[in-house]
Amino acid sequence: MLGWDARAARAAWTVFLIGLAVVIVYRIRRTVLIFTLAMLLAYLIAPLVDLIERVAPRKLPRTLRLAVVYVALIAAVVAGAASLGSRIATEAVQLARHVPEWLAHPDLAARIPAPAWAEPWKEQALETARQQLAAHAKEALPLLSQVVQRAVSLITNLGFVILVPILSFFFLKDAGAARERLLAWVAEGPGRSFVEDVLGDVHVLLGQFMRALVLLAAATFVCYGLFFWAIGLPYAALLAGLAGALEFIPVLGPLTAAIVILLVALLAGQVQMALWILAFLLMYRLFQDYVLQPYLMSAGVALHPLWVIFGVLAGEQIGGVAGMFLSIPVLATLRVIVVRLKKLYGPRVAVVR
């Protein structure tokens, strides 16, 4: 006879709730993205807030101390944009104008080294690029203008410029109270200890991840910029800025930056310089992956490369560039939860590695 199995019913109900939560999160993914970026921004500037709180007079309210941090950050961003933004924009326009000249150069094929078996394909690829460029040359500048306008539209988007800092302000201001309210919903016992441990691990993980990521991007920008300036690579500021920005996209970002930098050097006819750049890129990547990144991120964000690649590709399909950026903290958070479940329930739970 068919009977009621309470254990199976609870399992089915749990699976249903998880599936429903996944569907809801996917449908409101833009809102989730804004809140997630605000939380990550809060983790990024939390050390500055702590520093201000240590040196500021105690009579100043916490809200005022947070406002001081925000004003300082806005001033720093404006100063950085004023000093570097105009130069990078100028180099971007110059590069867009020079690429057609490079592709139309009669000795371009000889500038780009390739194995003997690839010579016919190289000629065909260059000829195709020339034809496409000639066909769309008149559209190049309007297209560039549209790209710039879309970028400005994205940057000035209400959700990212206004909501993210405001939400980040509230995350910093009320994070402690929100944590206490969340724990109050969980009954005393192993379940509450589990939630406390997960919240503590995720707190350390996200703070470490964001600060490390910004430091890695800054280190990439500075090192690339100094090296490109030393060897005389054209558009050094633009290419270094591109490499630093793409550090926020795991795996594919640095690879894309390397390809673009090498292509610019080859199209400019700097074959020997391209070899020096290739050697530098390989050495810097080894230094960053095996020295700098482990030192900054420690073992808390450690994920197998297969999981990283899977997360990046899946994140791109779900949320585009933002999904690629968020894939690593999401996977690392899931790993923290699985590790805590393993400690709570024993070896029956597999650890994500």
In short:
The chain has 353 residues and is mainly α. The chain is built from twelve helices and no strands.
Shape: globular
Strand content: under 5%
Q: Tally the beta strands.
A: 0
Classification by helices and strands: mainly alpha
Q: Would you tell me the overall average pLDDT?
A: 75
> How would a textbook summarize the main sheet?
none
- Please give the radius of gyration in angstroms: 25 Å
Distance between the termini: 43 Å
Low-confidence stretches: 137-141, 143-149
Order of helices and strands: HHHHHHHHHHHH
Number of domains: 2
Number of helices: 12
Percent of residues in helices comes to over 70%
Provide a descriptive summary of the structure in words.
The chain is built from twelve helices and no strands. Helix 8 runs antiparallel to helix 11 (271-297) and helix 10 (252-267) packs antiparallel against helix 11. By secondary structure, it is mostly helical. The protein has helices at 6-27, 29-55, 62-103, 108-111, 119-135, 137-155, 158-184, 190-231, 236-246, 252-267, 271-297, 305-345. The two termini are 43 Å apart. It folds into two domains: 47-174, no CATH class; 186-353, no CATH class.
